[in-house]
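Page 37, continued from 36.
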């Protein structure tokens, strides 16, 4: 018990001594720290005072510098303002001088205007005196003399102009009628040609449908060999006793037709025989083409044509345009061109030559891109044809402007041949629409019971209600329908209108 108490007392005494010693140490450190802080504060105050003095000196220098700079700028500004003020004074003096000059000029002009007015007054007085003397001498006033003079001039001019116009109209009408009737009448009267409507297919008749299998061959080898050699499509369908050849090239189609017909007649159909028959047909068609060209040249009397031009011309025998055979069309154009050229006192040989060759490009237009007129002109030019003929070929459809009378004649002949009734076929759709339009136009009139288009649209018969339309009204209705057809429809030739009533029928052609 005693040692513990002694230990506790020793511990308490040690703690108290430690605290006393620590307090003395802390008090010494605090005193030293306070002294250090006072020294730092004194140094900072000295440094701040030094810095403040330096900044004041720098600020004073800067203020002095800025003040000097401002004084320099003020001097420059005063100098510029002085120069500007001098210029303004000079401008003001110049304007004053110009104003004085303008005032003087205005005064001069006013003086001259007064003189002009005075001179005009003198002239008017002189003219009035002269007019009075003339009126007294003539015995009439100025207005009366002017009226008489104008009336005489008007009568003379009216009479002369009426005579000139009447004579010119009469002469032009007589000359136009005579020339038109003579040229077109003679030309169309001399031409007659048969036309066949051809298309892009040819039909070959076979003895029996059993032959279709032999034409096709085992696994289609015969038909493949045929199409590869000829370059055309062979169509075998359900059409009884017929097969169809289809191609846009009419010469190839003709070669294929002859080849197939010869194979059917021979009975032996196999690839080797097809090739043999194809070569024979090709030689035959080539000979026929050349003969057709030679015949066309002979018929028109055109000579000295290049061999290739004759052959190309013969290919037109198998070419159609809107159902019109192009070779026959070329012959027609040649005849028409020759007749019109002769009637106009031109060279008919040149016109016939150009008319015969005008559609030469249609023989090869499926092989070369471009308008057939340009293609034909290029071909003729390459083969040494006459420049005038080449121009007629390329100008007949307006691809270039016609420069010669012959070119215009070929244009006209081409249009006449193509527009001749029956030369070209209409499509079924346009034909039906044309008839329906004719009938609906006639039925639009009041009192019409029914109308019928007849003669392929060349005649229309109109049935009217007798109680609504009198005989006199029938005549007027026929004329009105004909006039309406002429104004609203486009048609070649003449359409006859017949209005039928119980008591009579009225015809009116338009």
């Amino acid at each position: 018990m005693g040692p513990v108490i002694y230990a506790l007392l020793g511990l308490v005494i040690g703690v108290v001594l430690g605290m006393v010693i620590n307090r003395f140490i802390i008090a010494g450190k605090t005193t030293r720290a306070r002294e250090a802080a006072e020294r730092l504060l004194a140094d900072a105050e000295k440094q701040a005072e030094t810095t403040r003095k330096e900044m004041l000196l720098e600020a004073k220098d800067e203020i002095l510098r800025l003040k000097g700079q401002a004084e320099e700028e003020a001097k420059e500004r005063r100098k510029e303002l002085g120069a500007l003020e001098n210029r303004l004074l000079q401008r003001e003096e110049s304007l004053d001088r110009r104003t004085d000059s303008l005032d003087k000029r205005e005064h001069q002009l006013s003086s001259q205007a007064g003189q002009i007015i005075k001179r005009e007054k003198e002239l008017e007085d002189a003219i009035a005196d002269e007019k009075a003397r003339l009126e007294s001498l003539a015995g009439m006033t100025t207005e009366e003399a002017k009226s008489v003079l104008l009336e005489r001039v008007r009568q003379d001019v009216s009479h002369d102009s009426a005579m000139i116009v009447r004579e010119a109209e009469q002469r032009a009408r007589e000359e136009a009628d005579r020339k038109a009737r003579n040229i077109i009448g003679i030309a169309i009267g001399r031409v007659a040609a048969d036309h066949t409507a051809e298309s892009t297919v040819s039909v070959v008749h076979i003895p029996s449908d059993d032959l279709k299998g032999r034409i096709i061959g085992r696994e289609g080898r015969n038909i493949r060999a045929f199409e590869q050699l000829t370059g055309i499509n062979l169509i075998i369908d359900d059409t009884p006793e017929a097969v169809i050849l289809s191609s846009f090239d009419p010469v190839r189609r003709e070669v294929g037709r002859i080849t197939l017909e010869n194979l059917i007649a021979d009975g032996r159909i196999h690839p080797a025989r097809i090739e043999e028959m194809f070569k024979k047909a090709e030689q035959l068609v080539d000979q026929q083409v050349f003969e057709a060209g030679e015949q066309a040249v002979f018929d028109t009397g055109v000579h000295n044509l290049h061999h290739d031009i004759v052959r190309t011309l013969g290919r037109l025998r198998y070419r159609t345009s809107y159902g019109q055979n192009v070779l026959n069309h070329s012959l027609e154009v040649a005849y028409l061109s020759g007749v019109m050229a002769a009637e106009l006192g031109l060279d008919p040989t040149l016109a016939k030559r150009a008319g015969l060759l005008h559609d030469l490009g249609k023989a090869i237009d499926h092989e070369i891109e471009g308008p057939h007129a340009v293609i034909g002109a290029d071909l003729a030019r390459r083969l040494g044809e006459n420049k005038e003929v080449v121009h007629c070929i390329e100008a007949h459809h307006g691809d270039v402007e016609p420069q010669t009378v012959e070119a215009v004649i070929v244009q006209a002949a081409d249009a006449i041949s193509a527009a001749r009734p029956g030369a070209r076929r209409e499509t079924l759709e346009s034909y039906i629409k044309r008839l329906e339009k004719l009938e609906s136009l006639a039925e639009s009139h009041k009192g019409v019971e029914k109308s019928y288009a007849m003669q392929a649209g060349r005649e229309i018969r109109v049935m009217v209600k007798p109680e609504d339309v009198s005989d006199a009204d029938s005549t007027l209705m026929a004329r009105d329908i004909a006039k309406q057809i002429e104004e609203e429809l486009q048609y070649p030739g003449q359409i006859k209108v017949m209005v039928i009533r119980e008591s009579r029928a009225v015809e009116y052609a338009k």
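Residues 428-509 form a domain with the Alpha-Beta Plaits fold (CATH 3.30.70). Flag for discussion at group meeting. The chain has four domains: 1-57, 132-190, 201-419, 428-509.
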